[in-house]
Structure formats: C-alpha cells, structure tokens
Write a structure and sequence with these properties.
By secondary structure, the protein is mainly α. It has 8 helices and 2 strands; from the N terminus they run E-H-H-H-H-H-H-H-H-E. Pfam families: IspA.
C-alpha cells in the first residue's frame, strides 16, 4: 500500500450535472421532446424526421466548430438513423420505440463484450460525462474498476429494457414516453450513485482520495 495519498479533485456536483446533462440533453431528451411536439401537431412522420434532423444538426454544429463530438451522441444518432428508416417504412410508433427499448439489451451486450479490450466501452462513454485525470484512468485498479462496473451497468440496461418493453406493450405513446423516461432516468441516477460509491471504495485502498469541486486557492497573509 502506498505511504502517501493522492487527492483527486472531481468536478463539483453542479458542474458534474451540467457536464453529464449536456450530452444526454442533446442525444436523448431534446430529440424525444421534438418528436412528441411534431407528432401531436403534424403527425408521426414529421416527429420521426424532426428528431433525426436535430441529432444531425447537433453533430454537424460540433464538427463545424471543431469541437469534440461525444461518443454517446455518435452512438445514439447512428441508432436513430436505423430507427427512422424503420419508422418511415412501417409507419408504426410501436416499432419505432421498440428499437430504443431493444437498444438497452444491445448496450448491455456491448458492455460485456468489450470487457476484454484495453479500454472497455464504459470507459469511453464515461469520459463524456466526467473527465478523469490521466493519473487515475491509467491506474491498474481503475482499469479493473471499469471492467467490474461495466457489469453493473449491463444489469442496469437489462432491467431498463425489460421494464420499458412492458410499458411499451401496455401503454399509449404519450404514457409510454412519460413513464419510460422518468423510470429510465431514475434507474440511471441510482446506477450513477452506486458507481461513484464503488469508485471511492475501490481507489481508497490504492492511496487515492476524491473531493468534489476545484482545489481551493491558498490564501496569503
């Protein structure tokens, strides 16, 4: 065990929420809200196309400004292209929303399949929500943590997929959007809380201490 402790300053809670919320807002909540608004006023096709256009503009804007495109935005937009094609072809809201429900099972599978890679999928996605310093991400215990917590998130996606599928099969589109969104984000919030607790516990024995917020400047005099 090391004879000294390394203090790692994580973003403040407010900064963490903003940093994590922006990709989720861009990739999920805004397209969903845009779909519902256009769906209720202009029909199913308009909602489907509007949601895809938003995601395309979000990526295009970042590319033009030469900003990093979050991995989660690339992933959700790619899957949204497939959803849009199926939705326009079948004109079925059930099949359109069945795909993101099935994506929960796909994500769970990808998290498990990438466990053997140098950087598991979860480690790549985590950088979009909370950028860890290199001293932490390159630590062997941290790499082991990402592999273990990937199993937790695989379970989160599996549970979310099963519950969302049940709601989709029994509720109207409006009720499905409301219930599934609230339930999914509540489940994700629990997963984040458990992950942060697990991170602190895993790295504490390696001489790392975590503190929320930026370092306080030293006062002179």
């Amino acid at each position: 065990m090391p004879d000294h402790r390394t203090l790692i300053h994580l973003p403040s809670l407010g900064s963490l929420v903003r940093h994590a919320g922006r990709p989720l807002l861009e990739s999920t909540l805004i397209p969903l809200a845009l779909f519902w608004i256009l769906f209720t006023h202009a029909g199913f096709d308009a909602g489907v196309i509007g949601a895809l256009c938003w995601s395309g503009l979000a990526i295009g804007r970042r590319l033009v400004l030469r900003r990093k495109v979050p991995a989660v935005l690339w992933l959700t937009t790619t899957l949204l292209v497939v959803r849009t094609a199926v939705g326009l072809w079948t004109h079925s809201a059930f099949l359109y929303f069945l795909q993101p429900t099935v994506q929960n099972f796909v994500f769970a599978g990808l998290l498990v399949l990438t466990l053997g890679l140098k950087q598991p999928l979860l480690a790549r996605l985590a950088d979009d929500f909370c950028a860890f310093p290199d001293a932490l991400t390159e630590h062997p215990t941290m790499k082991s943590f990402f592999r273990k917590v990937s199993l937790l998130w695989a379970a989160v996606f599996l549970v979310n997929g099963v519950t969302t599928l049940a709601v989709l099969a029994t509720q109207t589109v409006g009720s499905f959007l409301m219930v599934s969104t609230a339930g999914s984000y509540s489940l994700v919030a629990v997963g984040i809380g458990v992950s942060l607790w697990w991170l602190h516990r895993s790295m504490k024995g390696e001489g790392f201490t975590f503190r929320m917020g930026a370092p306080r400047p030293l006062r002179v005099g």
